[in-house]
Amino acid sequence: MSARHSAGICLFVVWFFAGAVFGETEYLAVFMEGKKVGYALETREGAGDRVRTTHQVSLSMIRAGIPLSFKITETCVETADGKPLGFESVQHLGIMAMRTTGVVNEQGMVEVTTSSMGAEQKSGFEWPKGAVMAEGERLERLKKGLKEGTSYRVKLFSPAGMRAIDTQIRIGPKQKVDLLGRVVSLTEVVSVAEIAAAGQVVTTSYVDEELRVLKSSLPMMGMQIEMVACTKDFALGDNDVLELVDKMFLPAPVSLGDVGSAESIRYLVVPKSEGERLVIPDGDNQKVEKLGNGSLVVTVKPAQPPKGAKFPYKGGDKVVLEAMKPSRFVQSDRKEIVELARRAVGKTRDAAEAARRIETFVADYMENRGLSVGYASAAEVAASRQGDCTEFAVLTAAMCRAVGIPAQVVMGFAHVKDFAGVQNRFGGHAWVRAYIGGEDGRWMGVDAAFKSAGRSGYGPKHIGLVFGNGDPEDFFALVGILGRFRIERVTVNKGR
Known about the structure:
Elements: H1 4-13, E1 25-32, E2 35-47, E3 50-63, E4 66-79, E5 84-92, E6 98-104, E7 109-116, E8 119-126, H2 134-144, E9 151-158, E10 163-179, E11 182-195, E12 199-207, E13 213-220, E14 223-229, H3 232-235, E15 249-251, E16 264-271, E17 286-290, E18 296-300, H4 318-322, H5 335-345, H6 351-365, H7 378-384, H8 389-402, E19 407-419, E20 422-436, E21 442-446, H9 448-452, E22 462-468, H10 476-481, E23 485-493
Antiparallel strand pairs: 1-2, 1-14, 2-3, 3-4, 4-5, 5-6, 6-7, 7-8, 9-10, 10-11, 11-12, 12-13, 13-14, 15-20, 16-18, 16-23, 17-18, 19-20, 19-22, 20-21
Helix pairs in contact: 5-8, 6-8, 7-8
């Protein structure tokens, strides 16, 4: 069960732009469950025609008695009229810092460089049409004003999340707002962001006449997260102790016991709020049926890979080919990962057998299944040999890709009988699906973390939410959806 819940929260919070006055730094304290867990700050400065906006978020929490700390610093560089020029994100989420820089060229392409552990990785993408960063979003707020009833949309690009989020802004009434004992009159601003798989994420903010955000709140993981403007000393001061382990799990309606040999399991997933829209994807290993009341029936049945399929993959499916490429957290082109993959696979040319060998290799390779690693990349895991489910997953995916087996990191939920004293629960989890075969191939589930823990690897007790590269933004879905639904009924099909 992953520390990426906390990392996902950190990424959400960094999107709360405070709207600092030019040349000044705004400080906000971050609260969860009424406890101070960190701070956020924003600075705006400029030289010539350029505006440089820096946001930083730092959070500290406890998981199963083990402290976790996360820090993200992102910088947006724009022209005075809000045109994006470049960005930088420094994420202290794992064992070492990861730095990502992007430059937007005249053709609208973004040239990206990611640096970690002394190595660089180059990539690129087309700038999302109409997307803005910090200064562009601030100028749009100035243009629209604070008249009650005003509504508009923005596409906000986050360097930390490396994606643009469609967001609807609605201006509400003026209200009396408590800022840590100081009551002031502020305007309510409601932002509704469309997050892939998580659906709508609603943030309620309160701004002054200069459009500075002095208070923000949003529900997440069944909790309320707040940011409140304060002095520098208070923001950077000591934090309270917040234990997250109970917030990472959902209760099971019945005791599942040992159903590792079950052929399939059928889940009735029910939203807690009327009108809530849940998004759970179909795939080779799970089928999703939508009911009229917003509920979903998810049937998980592990796919059987085609027999005799060889690797490397030589087909032309775009999604599958994308799952062959190295990425920020799945560095399959690193020499040390290629060597580990070759050791694991040995002389077999059977793709399914190779994926199973990699699963077993990673399960045995990890020396410390500790909970203190926040969010490490495959290269970091290969060197440290420590981490939880997400570290197992990114290393497994990287090793599969290194030998030509397409693989994606899956973020979702899995059932455990016992974890850190919590029993019979579904918890946030990460595993891998590997593509076996050619044009008519199948995605096969692989779970080195469960295999290492004696839980029989991947099985029907897994519900996938996002299939991707293991990037921190993929965990938005899991963090965003936690606390918004319940598993009301479970039906086990044990087969013959």
